[in-house]
Design the sequence.
């Protein structure tokens, strides 16, 4: 034996054989995808509960919800995150395309871009949305404290301006307060905002882990034209996270 | 050895000849690129339409209320979701079984949302009926006869002398008679 065993020269995706209970690899791949779709349907139903709560309370307090969306959320942040998630969906499609072409480099690059987009989404969500909201008391249910925080700020601002005696302190406080009118049910809006976006954000975090796992498998030559089933399933999961955000964004931030 | 695919080892025959991804559908780049571009455009469109509240038509304006805003935004979001599912998630190219799963899920969501919302919406009507604002037989008489609702309320609360309702109650007009039973037809049917 002068040459090395043939199996040593095959990359994992070339040497891949389906599990013995499958007739062939096509059946295995399609079975795995069907299983993934069934899992995704449960994910959709999970979020349907939040959408249902949203619709229920919106029907009860339509004006309050419209105002709360304007007062508490920045649509610019939501729009930026929507665009980033769409881009990440596109790049993970390109990663699968690269796997189909056997282009490991492009696959890793596109998965890397997807990973960066996911990180961008979470950093924006935590740093520019959640942290200011926690600081300001824009919190769900019984933790909602924004009117008190706002009144305190108005008082502080009045104290700063008052020594100049150009504008009476009371007027400053009044002007400041007139820009915000708390609704009676803001805490319910914020409850649904927090539970739905936090559950979605958790899915993004899980997505980062599974995309990282897919990157490791791609790096180890596990994905190629003849085998990339788990990469496809990671992609499907990532797309459903994107689709859920497509619905959450206009409902919470815009209308 | 030049080409590992020339092997006749059973293990590798399994891995090559019988492998389903031999005739793999390579995702077309430009299709996906344009889908991505359309998705970005639709996102911008959602933001744009959400900030339009009036459309000038000639000398007047059409007001776009909250309900219409929701309908527009949800229509655009549905188009986006369908694009992602059909192209990015490959449903268009897959076997129909995956689409059947998706459609069943959407059916479940519609049941879930629809039954909850019919209850929520009709509760308002129920309350109005309890308060005497709506009566069995339809709203149209109330709308077409302004002031009748107030007169009926007044009559119900003890009566305003000479009101239409009291007169009609006194004269027996307001008593709703059951429709006369059509005995001939019933006997003919059974």
Sequence:
């Amino acid at each position: 034996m002068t040459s090395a065993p043939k199996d040593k020269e095959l990359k994992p995706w070339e040497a891949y054989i389906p599990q013995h209970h499958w007739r062939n690899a096509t059946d295995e791949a399609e079975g795995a995808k069907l299983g993934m779709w069934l899992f995704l349907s449960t994910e959709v139903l999970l979020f349907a509960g939040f959408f249902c709560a949203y619709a229920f309370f919106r029907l009860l307090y339509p004006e309050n919800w419209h105002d709360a969306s304007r007062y508490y959320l920045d649509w610019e942040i939501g729009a930026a995150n929507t665009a980033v998630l769409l881009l990440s969906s596109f790049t993970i499609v390109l990663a699968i395309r690269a796997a189909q072409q056997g282009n490991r480099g492009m696959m890793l690059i596109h998965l890397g871009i997807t990973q960066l987009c996911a990180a961008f989404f979470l950093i924006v969500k935590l740093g520019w949305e959640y942290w200011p909201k926690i600081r300001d008391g824009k919190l769900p249910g019984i933790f909602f404290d924004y009117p008190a925080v706002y009144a305190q700020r108005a008082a502080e601002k009045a104290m700063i301006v008052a020594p100049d005696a150009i504008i009476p302190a009371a007027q400053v406080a009044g002007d400041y307060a007139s820009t915000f009118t708390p609704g009676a049910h803001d805490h319910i809006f914020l409850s649904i905002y927090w539970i739905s976006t936090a559950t979605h954000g958790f899915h993004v975090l899980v997505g980062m882990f599974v995309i990282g796992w897919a990157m490791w498998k791609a790096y180890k030559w596990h994905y190629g034209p003849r085998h990339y089933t788990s990469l496809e399933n990671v992609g499907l999961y990532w797309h459903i996270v994107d689709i859920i955000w497509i619905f959450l964004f206009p409902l919470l931030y815009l209308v | 050895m030049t080409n590992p695919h020339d092997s006749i080892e059973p293990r590798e025959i399994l891995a090559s000849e019988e492998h389903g991804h031999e005739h793999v559908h390579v995702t077309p780049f430009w299709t996906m690129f344009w889908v991505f571009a359309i998705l970005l455009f639709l996102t911008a469109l959602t933001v744009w339409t959400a900030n339009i509240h009036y459309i000038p038509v000639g000398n007047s304006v059409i007001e776009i209320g909250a309900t219409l805003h929701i309908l527009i935004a949800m229509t655009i979001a549905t188009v986006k979701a369908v694009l992602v599912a059909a192209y990015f998630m490959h449903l268009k190219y897959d076997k129909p079984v995956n689409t059947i799963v998706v459609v069943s899920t959407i059916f479940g969501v519609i049941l879930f949302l629809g039954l909850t919302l019919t209850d929520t919406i009709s509760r308002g009507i129920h309350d109005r009926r309890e308060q005497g604002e709506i009566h069995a037989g339809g709203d149209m008489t109330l709308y077409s006869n302004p002031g009748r609702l107030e007169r009926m309320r007044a009559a119900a609360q003890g009566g305003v002398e000479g009101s239409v309702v009291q007169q009609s109650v006194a004269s027996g007009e307001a008593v709703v008679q059951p429709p006369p039973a059509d005995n001939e037809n019933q006997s003919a049917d059974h």
User: Anything to note?
Assistant: Residues 96-130 of chain B form the longest helix (35 residues).
